Amino acid sequence: MDITSANAKCFLTIEELFPAGVLLQNYATDQAVDQDERQISIVRMGVDGHMAAGWTPQPHIIHFTFEANSPSLTYIRALAKYMETQKKIVRLGLLINIPSISTSFMFSNGVLTNAKDFPALKQVLDPVTAAFAFETRS
Q: Which residue, 49, 69, 88, 133, is most buried by CB atoms nearer than 10 A?
């Protein structure tokens, strides 16, 4: 079975700035896109040994790692700057298409949560990261 990630595509929609969406590209070599595990159930054990569990909503946290020269960083920096100057949250959408496993994920009602202003200056520039939180996935 094919598990190639090189042909995966990610499209970010930023209604207030780039409503048509932008193709994210030029990812870092060893890390491109990653998602935090979500806690699906909250579980407690009573003193009498009986377990109780419940579901609570959790955000979908998606991390991107780009090479320092990625054109995608222009969009992320513009979004961060816009949020800072307007002093408001901007809602986002994200589509991740992974052809090798015939799967797509659509995330909505998201926000930029973390971003680096510049890469670490070393022998060569380090990759740059950005993180987003999304309310829903379909």
A: 133
**CA gyration radius, the chain:** 18
Q: What is the pTM of this model?
A: 0.91
Query: And the tokens for 110?
Result: 């998201």
Question: CA end-to-end span of the chain, whole Å?
Answer: 25
Give the position of tokens 């193709």. Answer: 23
Picking from 30, 126, 138, 12, the residue whose alpha carbon sits closest to that of residue 74 is 12
Q: How far apart are CA 5 and CA 57, in angstroms?
A: 29
- CA–CA separation, 83 and 23 (whole Å): 20
Q: Which residues does residue 22 pair with via DSSP β-bridges, in sequence order?
A: 12
Residue recorded with tokens 């377990």: 51
pLDDT tens, position by position, 75-102: 999 999 999 999 999 999 999 999 999 9
